[in-house]
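REQUEST ID: PR-0412
SUBMITTED BY: lab tech R.K.
PRIORITY: routine
TASK: structure prediction, single protein chain
INPUT:
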Amino acid sequence: MSAPHAPRLPRSARTLLALVLAANVLNYLDRQVVSALERELRQAFSLDRVAFGALWSAFTLGYMTFAPAVGYAADRVRRPRLLGACILVWSAATCASGLARTAFELYAARFFIGVGEAGCLVIGPALLSDLVPAAVRGRVLAAFYLGMPIGGAAGYLVGGAARHAGLGYTAAFLAAGLPGLLLAAATARRPDPRPIARGGVPTARPPSAAAYRSLLTRPAYLAVVAAQTFAVAVLAPILHFAVRFFEEARGLAPLEATGLLAGTALVGGLVGAPLSGVVGDRLAARRRDGYALVAAVGYGLAAPLVALVFLAPSPYVFAPALLVASALLFACMPAVNTQISVVVPAPARAMAYAAAVFVLHLLGDMAAPPLFGAVADAMGTAPAFAAFSSLLLFASFAAFVSGRAMGRERA
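STATUS: complete
OUTPUT:
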């Protein structure tokens, strides 16, 4: 069967898609730049490895705490305006990170980056799911999730370039945060694809509390959230600690280490995410579990490759393994989020994404970076990475369960 035809979106929809994609690029740039500055931040603020890992936890605390509130508000107000406000908050907090002079101020800034960024992965997918036909939703959401490899790579490059030029962490944070102030204003002015009454309130009746509670009775939704949670528990330590690992354990220069991670993330994402959208849409045209199947296969194949990245001393082994693993993991991200849009009714999607964000960060990367730091201190960094990579096998199984549960729910 041929892939579904992709109808041409109207200009207003294409503009909104471009702005939301740009927001997701800055979303990941602003959260990721800190990981390229481990040496500078630990020296400036006297942080040990666990305390540096807690910078990610501070971000996650703000992120997961405010995600449900953003999801609730997104069902009741003009979504582009709310997204613009969120961009403004996290961009200002990124700039504030560069101006921090105490560890408390740095942790507080990271918390507010999470507060603002809670809006991007809650509002963005729900808004785009309403904007485009279901037949091409996988490809559109794949374009949205290109923000992770592009923004993540940009974060490493901005931080690495600032270090290489001797500009310090302040310049890196300001370069990352200032563009968002302009994007916030442009996004807030866009129209909402839903019918909006006078006063900026959607004409459609918002979901009831019972609709939100019904998410807990959907095994397909719960399983795909579990898959994301296991994956995030692996990805967060990699994103946060891999730069210094490649510098100290593999002898790479700072710019080489950030360039390796940025380059493999960028190429892997540009290959994996679009391929996931095309393959997922094609499979979904024939079977309801198409997106879940893409995620199950991707996570399962990525698990041994991630372990190989950190156990193999030769760059001729770990660099290709990192590239292929990146492509597989970036293929999984749009797949699991498109799966949510399939198994959850449209009126409850914003809250479904918000609940997923809360759970996967509470049980995934809230504790993972400091826990990884403690495990790495006890057994070594490379064995710790290899041990954490086994969680991707659990992610694969959970994605498979989500696909199987869809058949039972349909019956």
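NOTES: The mean pLDDT is 83.
REVIEWED BY: pending
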